[in-house]
Write a structure and sequence with these properties.
single chain; Rossmann fold; phosphoprotein; Sig_transdc_resp-reg_receiver; Response regulator; Bact_response_regulator; CheY-like_superfamily
């Protein structure tokens, strides 16, 4: 992705100190990204904060997992551009299964938010890569509340 590498993403996620009061959130987040390192770093960050995390490598895998686990998934965090099925379409499919699903769509492309608007997707939030863990946790709390 232009301007985004696995190394810069890892550095960004590792360098931020996230305050965790030790409270278990009892919330499940589905993380979808085709880059292994990004997926692992997001999973580690969210688990450190007390979230349960499910992961998928692309939209097809994510939709299959979502069909089985939709009742317990509270939030989707998905890359936008991935092979087989992009994050836009995966989110639309998941919303048919669970209307009102909360989502954060992520892209390494500078115009990622514009792409979401052009696709008429009402994703509540958008983040640009590399992701700041503090910003991610802040957005998750705003969307799910402090649990």
């Amino acid at each position: 992705m232009p301007g985004t590498t696995e190394t810069s993403m890892a550095r960004s996620l590792q360098s931020a100190h996230i305050e965790n009061d030790g409270q278990q959130n009892q919330r499940t987040i589905l993380v979808v990204d085709d880059e292994l390192l990004v997926r692992q770093m997001l999973q580690d960050c969210l688990e450190e904060y007390g979230f349960a995390v499910l992961t998928a490598t692309d939209g097809v895998e994510a939709c299959g997992l979502f069909m089985k686990e939709s009742a317990r998934i509270d939030l989707l965090v998905s890359d936008v551009l991935m092979p087989r099925m992009n994050g836009f379409y995966a989110y639309q499919v998941m919303c048919r299964i669970k209307p009102g699903l909360k989502a954060i769509l992520v892209s390494g492309y500078p115009n990622g938010a514009d792409m979401i608007n052009e696709a008429n997707i009402n994703a509540p939030e958008f983040l640009s890569k590399p992701i700041s863990p503090k910003e991610l946790i802040s957005k998750i709390h705003a969307m799910l509340g402090n649990v």
